[in-house]
Design goal:
With 150 residues, the chain is α+β, with helices and mostly antiparallel strands. A hairpin with a 2-residue loop joins strand 1 and strand 2. It has a 3-stranded antiparallel beta sheet, with helices on one face. Strands 4-5 form a two-stranded parallel ribbon. Helix 2 packs across helix 4 and helix 3 crosses helix 4.
């Protein structure tokens, strides 16, 4: 495993990579020792571009796994356009399980590469933010940030 860190407008991001791709992206209180590889360097570059409003989609290789339902949900999240939102119910319909809104929320919570797989773009049916494992204030910031650069 390789680790790199990025100071972002939302705090310090820890990026973890296997030899195959990015496995985790999360917020930490402080940086530790970094050990770069090609995927980490590219991920850092793309995140910097994203935070500057110059990148709308990520193309870094990912090495994440979950249940079939989680992976199907994550693929659908990647289809949500930059600066747009979808409700948990809309995502459930898109994965052909209209009763799975709660399960969509659980799959979002298990997304280990937020921002890259944009789970922050999923909101409640009534327009409220719903949940976000990295903190609702970060979800709100990401949504406002993307709207600025549409």
């Amino acid at each position: 495993m390789y680790k790199a860190y990025l100071d972002s407008p939302l705090g310090v991001l820890e990026i973890i990579s296997s030899g195959k791709g990015i496995t985790r992206l999360g917020f930490v209180k402080k940086k530790k020792t970094s050990s770069y590889n090609k995927a980490l360097s590219e991920c850092r570059k793309q995140l910097v571009e994203y935070f500057k409003g110059k990148r709308k989609k990520f193309s870094v290789p990912l090495d994440v796994s979950g249940s079939d339902f989680e992976e199907k949900t994550w693929r659908e999240l990647k289809r949500i356009p930059y600066g747009k939102t979808r409700s948990y119910k809309e995502i459930a319909l898109r994965v052909n399980n209209n009763a799975a809104s709660r399960a969509i929320g659980n799959a979002n919570g298990k997304n280990c590469v937020p921002i890259i797989i944009p789970c922050h773009r999923v909101i409640s049916n009534n327009g409220s933010l719903g949940g976000y494992s990295s903190g609702l204030w970060r979800k709100k910031w990401l949504l406002v940030h993307e709207k600025k650069f549409l």
